[in-house]
Fold this sequence. Notes:
- It is a single chain.
- This protein is α+β, with helices and mostly antiparallel strands.
- 22% of the residues lie in helices and 29% in strands.
- It is built from 3 helices and 13 strands; from the N terminus they run H-E-H-E-H-E-E-E-E-E-E-E-E-E-E-E.
- The strands form 4 sheets. Strands 3, 4, 5, 6, 8, 9 and 11 form a 7-stranded antiparallel β-sheet that branches. Strands 1-2 form a two-stranded parallel sheet. The chain has a two-stranded antiparallel ribbon with strand order 7-10.
- Helix 2 (35-51) runs parallel beside helix 3.
- The chain is globular and about 50 Å long.
Amino acid sequence: GIDNVNRIKQLAVNYGLSSKPLQDTEGFWWTLTGATTQTAWFARKYLLDASQGVSAFYWYSWNHGSKMQGTYLIGVYNQLHSWMVGRTVYPCAQNGSVWTCVIKGNAGWTGMAVWNTAGSSQFSVPSQFTGWQDLFGGSHGVSGSSVAINVIPILLTGSGSVEAPPTAVLSLSPSSGTLPLNVTANGTASH
């Protein structure tokens, strides 16, 4: 999960490896059963990894064990591919059991993946989103100001932009020596 990725990132910093790509070299749902649970885990794993800067995630296995070959997950994988590849998935935000991930692409395109880990609920849709896509290839219009969400992510789509959560970009000069640095959540830094 996100906590594990953060621990690995800290270890990379501690050992001078933070410039290396972070990859999740093998994943699988091991004990999860049922199409809904497996689909939800599969999609959220890809979205959350991407939102934390993981550059690659490798599913175990395409055609052995928990095989994906020849299953409905091929369509889910293809849909995730269309949502994410060539776009930036910003850090996901959690509000109770509801998760949102802003995704930005070329020419100002913005989407938002959203799901509720606790089950079904209504989600208030920001006004710039006029439609949504499910993971099975369906496209739907937003009727009113909310959409039904559940454990399986959907992608809100439309026109305009949405504010992405802040990302940290830090460069230091000089590149050697020691200096205490304090960075606060409001974007200020002191030393």
